[in-house]
Design a protein that fits this description.
- This protein has one helix and 30 strands.
- It has about 350 residues and is mainly beta.
- A hairpin with a 5-residue loop joins strand 14 and strand 15.
Length: about 350
């Protein structure tokens, strides 16, 4: 993976910066003009895409570390920190406090384009409306390990010890559908068509539920923990980290149960740490613990090297809405953004 003769797209079609602290997350604003990198030193670096990425602004979002980051509503980004605050970062870098939950860590944030937001705080998920007010607080039996909205923003799923809970955001009575499975559950995803919920577990495996009939799905065989999971745009595949390759589970033809996963871009003994599926095509971006970033076409298996190893393990990956820009960040504070749009 460290072949110095390989030509990487970053040199030809990208911009990069050393930001000085662990990059915990990256998110493009849905308005298409901004890119946000959240750092372990509490800062958020905002990239002005209208200026072709030439303008990078650093703003103080948290007095401590940024713990979570996502795109917010129709523009900007949403962050959670170890200072107990949920913050909104506008495309121009303006920072606004939406909520403060004492000194509790805000380890998970999620937002839907409709304007509804959620923050995972200890054992609760707080639903925050477009004006920044707490609409409701959803209690869970243990610390929340991950949160995700469905495609329509009508349901939110939260992982926790011994399973996950699925809530209707607009319900008058908050009674979750509880998805049981013993063990500790962390990263969580809802299938694009709302048919399945999948979590990554402490036990180096994934667990899923088919919502139509409650059928369990266990996906195992990982050599390390899976921290990153991502469905392809139409939900045909689930891409995952946690192995020396990108592991893809089929969600078609009765899968994933009884189906072997497909593996891409592996074999050199370096663990995949982050995955991000393209928002339109059956393509996945993957980052590895040595700093390598690759693009892989799922159908053909073709691999395109994006960024070389050597700048720290990949800790963040994100696509913009139409899949023309890819951003990445590393544990050593290195960051980059690539323009993958067609050129004449």
């Amino acid at each position: 993976m460290s072949d110095t003769d390989i030509e990487y797209l970053l040199a030809e079609r990208g911009l990069s910066r050393q930001l000085g602290a662990w990059v915990i997350g990256a998110a493009f604003g849905r308005e298409g003009r901004s890119l946000h990198f959240g750092l372990g030193d509490g800062s958020v670096h905002v990239v002005d895409l209208a200026a072709r990425g030439a303008d990078w602004t650093s703003v103080e979002a948290h007095k401590g570390a940024v713990l979570s980051l996502c795109a917010d509503g129709k523009d900007g980004a949403l962050t959670g920190g170890d200072d107990g605050r949920v913050m909104r970062i506008a495309p121009d870098g303006t920072v606004t406090e939406l909520q403060k939950f004492g000194s509790k860590w805000i380890e998970h944030v999620a937002s839907h384009e409709s304007g509804i937001r959620a923050a995972g705080v200890s054992k609760a998920v707080h639903v925050i409306d477009a004006k920044g007010n707490v609409q409701k607080s959803l209690a869970h039996p243990s610390t929340v390990g991950g949160i995700a909205f469905d495609t329509k923003g009508k349901r939110i799923a939260a992982s926790h010890y011994n399973g996950a809970s699925l809530w209707f955001v607009g319900a008058k009575e908050d009674r979750p559908r509880v998805l049981d499975w013993k063990g500790s559950h962390a990263a969580i995803a809802i299938h694009p068509d709302g048919s399945h919920v999948v979590t990554a577990m402490q036990e180096m495996a994934l667990h899923g539920w088919r919502l139509a009939d409650g059928q369990h799905m266990r996906m195992s065989g990982y050599p390390s923990k899976t921290h990153s999971i991502s469905f392809t745009s139409k939900g045909k595949w689930l891409a995952t980290s946690g192995a020396e390759s990108v592991v893809l589970w089929p969600f078609f033809g009765g899968g994933p149960m009884g189906k072997a996963p497909t593996e891409l871009a592996g074999g050199d003994g370096v663990m995949c740490t982050r995955v991000a599926c393209h928002p339109q095509h059956e393509m996945v971006a993957a980052g590895f613990e040595d700093g390598l970033v690759l693009l892989s076409d799922i159908n053909s298996g073709r691999i395109v090297p994006v960024a070389p190893p050597g700048e720290g393990g990949i800790s963040a990956l994100a696509w913009n809405a139409n899949g023309t820009l890819l951003a990445f960040g590393t544990e050593k504070g290195f960051s980059g953004v690539l323009d993958l749009s067609a050129r004449a």
